[in-house]
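fyi for ur records
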Amino acid sequence: MKDSSLRELFVDELRDLYDAENRLIKALPKLAKKANLGELRSGFETHLTQTKEHAERLKRIMVSLDEKPSGRNVQELRGSSRKVTNSWVKVSREVLWTLL
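which gave:
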């Protein structure tokens, strides 16, 4: 595989990761808001802080490679992120009811 192909693959992966981190940044506050248990809410908020750091790190890497720090904007992934968010809310409720 040529160096340019490896670079393209690397940049594509970085873009996917950057997009995923940004989708999480949008989803985690919703999960935290819906969490009824303080510890669960705190976990989501901590994860949000870490995710923002990850996104910023990916952005710096992309800039250092002279690439535009943006996600690939894949529609299927966006639908999956909504499904995951809804699943987490359902699981959180089930776990809370089990613990009560």
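DSSP finds three helices and no strands in the chain. thats all i got for now
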